Amino acid sequence: MAFDSILKPDGSIAIGIATMIATVVIYDRSLPSGAIMHATDANDINIEAGRKKATWTAAGVLSVITLLTKDINVFILGGVTLAALDFHARHANASNPATGALVSDTGYAPGLRSVS
Predict the structure, then answer these.
(1) According to the model, what pLDDT value does residue 100 have?
(2) Residue 95 pairs with which residues in a beta bridge?
(3) Could you give the 3-state DSSP secondary structure of residue 102?
(4) For the chain, how big is the Rg over CA atoms in Å?
(5) d(CA 59, CA 83)
(6) Sorting pLDDT into bands at 50, 70 and 90, what band is 6?
(7) How far is the C-alpha of 113 from the C-alpha of 6, rounded, in Å?
(8) What is the pLDDT of residues 37-81, one digit of tens each?
(9) Which 3 state secondary structure label does DSSP give 14?
């Protein structure tokens, strides 16, 4: 099966940039700012839930737009943005606010953390 784009090259880049912007907006609305995530205790369950929601929502939007346009450039631009924003959110949530060092996930059992 050929995956032939329905877009011209300039339209391909424009839709790719629009997909990048949509991904950024989804993450912006689902998560607090980077400063707040870094100031919150490491491995906060609420930030992790928001990150997962943002990732799945952005992946769904990216998939729909890619399938509608049949354009690989849209997928590449949106996918790179999605991966970068997910890494940024994971890193911010895993850092200790006092030391800035990364903290391994200890699980959800004793001492659940939440934003106060």
Answers:
(1) 82
(2) 102
(3) strand
(4) 17
(5) 10
(6) confident
(7) 48
(8) 999 998 899 999 999 999 999 999 999 999 999 888 899 999 999
(9) helix
The answer to whether the beta carbons of residues 45 and 113 sit under 8 Å apart is yes
Predicted TM-score of the model (pTM):
0.82
pLDDT of residue 114: 52
Domain ranges for the chain, please list them: 9-94
CA dist., res. 92 & res. 41, Å (int): 10
The torsion of the CA quartet 32, 55, 45, 42, rounded to 10 degrees, works out to -70
Please report where in the chains the tokens 């700012």 appear, as a residue: 33
Q: Is the C-alpha dihedral spanning 116, 41, 48, 30 positive or negative? A: positive
